């Protein structure tokens, strides 16, 4: 069971997320609508992970600034929720080394998988972006992936094909390249196109 803080200014969306997480056996520590409430919540109870909407219209700061402040108080994985996929916004978000971005509207199952993945990857190393090990969802479990053995990643619709050293067939994962690329943000990987990361 994970303790999750939700930072989302739309009450209906926040309640949907809460319900989805609780059905999956997790505990929601709080539902904060803005920067001030989120900071106060973390001081009251430390979450294992935070889900943060980037666009907080009823807040003095947006979700990225909120995440930065929360991380100053407590190290934890951050998953951004956003309807905005502008590169400038995502570039700012990358500074906080998020575990994932979920583009709205997202599927309930996708939300649960990303929350559990963020925690699984966090347990293998304190800094996800620097870790050489990732756990990715496959069928009903997780598969360990060593980043130093990855040759390249190729987007294929809702899937990503991961080509590895000494393996003829790629591994196929049910997630988009946008979710995986932050884990490969080191200088060893380059985005050749929208669908290929080498």
What does this structure look like?
The protein is globular. The protein has 198 residues and is of the alpha/beta class. Helix 2 (35-44) packs parallel to helix 3. Mean pLDDT is 83; it is low at 124-129. 32% of the residues are buried. Strand 3, helix 3 and strand 4 (78-82) form a beta-alpha-beta unit. The protein has six helices and eleven strands.
Class from secondary-structure proportions: alpha/beta
Treating each run of at least 4 consecutive H or I residues as one helix, how many helices? 6
Biggest β-sheet: strands ordered side by side in the sheet: 2-1-3-4-5
Radius of gyration: 16 Å
Kindly report how far apart the N and C termini lie.
35 Å
Please give the share of residues in helix. Answer: 25-40%
Shape: globular
Give the integer mean of the pLDDT values.
83
Low-confidence stretches: 124-129
**Beta content:** 25-35%
* SSE run: EHEHEHEHEHEEEEEHE
The biggest sheet, with number of strands, parallel, antiparallel or mixed sense and barrel status, is: 5 strands, parallel
Strand segment count:
11
What's this, in brief?
The chain has 6 helices and 11 strands. The protein has 198 residues and is an alpha/beta fold.
């Amino acid at each position: 069971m994970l303790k999750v803080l939700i930072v989302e200014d739309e009450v209906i969306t926040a309640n949907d997320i809460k319900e989805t997480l609780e059905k999956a056996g997790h505990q929601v520590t709080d539902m904060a609508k803005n920067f001030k409430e989120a900071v106060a919540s973390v001081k009251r109870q430390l979450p294992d992970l935070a889900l943060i909407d980037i666009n907080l219209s009823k807040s003095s700061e947006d979700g990225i600034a909120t995440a930065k402040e929360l991380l100053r108080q407590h190290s934890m994985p951050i998953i951004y929720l956003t309807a905005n996929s502008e590169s400038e916004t995502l570039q700012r978000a990358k500074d906080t080394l998020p575990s994932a971005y979920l583009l709205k509207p997202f599927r309930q199952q996708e939300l649960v998988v990303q929350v559990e993945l963020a925690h699984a990857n966090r347990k293998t190393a304190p800094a996800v972006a620097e870790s050489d090990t990732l756990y990715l969802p496959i069928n009903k479990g997780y598969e360990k992936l060593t980043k130093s053995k990855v040759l390249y990643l190729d987007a294929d619709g809702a899937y990503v094909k991961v080509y590895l050293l000494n393996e003829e067939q790629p591994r196929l994962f049910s997630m988009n390249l946008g979710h995986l690329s932050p884990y490969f943000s080191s200088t060893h990987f380059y985005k050749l196109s929208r669908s290929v990361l080498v």
